[in-house]
Amino acid sequence: MDDSVGFLLARAGGRAIRGLNRGLEPFGLRTRHYTVLMAAAQHGGLAQRELGDLLGIDPSAVVALVDDLQTAGLVRRDPHPDDRRTRLVVLTDEGLKTFGEAAALASKIDDETLAPLDAAERATLADLLRRIARP
């Protein structure tokens, strides 16, 4: 099993997600909520379909995640300037504050998860994962 790249990726990913979920508990968030906040912070207003495509999440799951975040006051759905049928998911001021705090925590958890690697190995790993993760 130690030679199976898929197994090792799943195991490492599971470890990272469990750590992040524990860290996000005080914010009332899970990893998937955090990824929606991150996408909205990095890209500005995104349609739910764009969020799903960007994050690789089923559209119905995106709706539920955005509903959770909207109920918590972290995002709002604004009208799209060019398409009346589309709403853009935008961070509220509280969402921006929460994302900033959660991002700092996520960075700390990343550092803990990647502690066995030196800086060059971390950069190589991130590059390799980006190449693999592209659709």
The run of helices and strands is: HHEHHEEHH
Q: Pick out the low-confidence regions.
A: none
What structural category do the secondary elements indicate?
A: mainly alpha
Oligomeric state of shown chains? single chain
CATH superfamily membership, which one? Winged helix-like DNA-binding domain superfamily/Winged helix DNA-binding domain
Query: What is the helix content?
Result: 55-70%
Rounded to an integer, what's the Rg over CA atoms? 16 Å
Which word captures the global form?
globular
- Under CATH, the topology can be stated as Arc Repressor Mutant, subunit A
SS field, number of helical segments: 6
Description:
This protein has 135 residues and is mainly alpha-helical. It has one domain (5-133): Arc Repressor Mutant, subunit A (Orthogonal Bundle). It contains six helices and three strands. The chain has a three-stranded antiparallel sheet with strand order 1-3-2. A hairpin with a 7-residue loop joins strand 2 (75-79) and strand 3. Helix 2 packs across helix 4, helix 2 (31-43) packs across helix 5 (93-113) and helix 3 (48-55) packs across helix 4. The longest helix has 21 residues, at 93-113. The two termini are 26 Å apart. The model has no long low-confidence stretch (mean pLDDT 92).
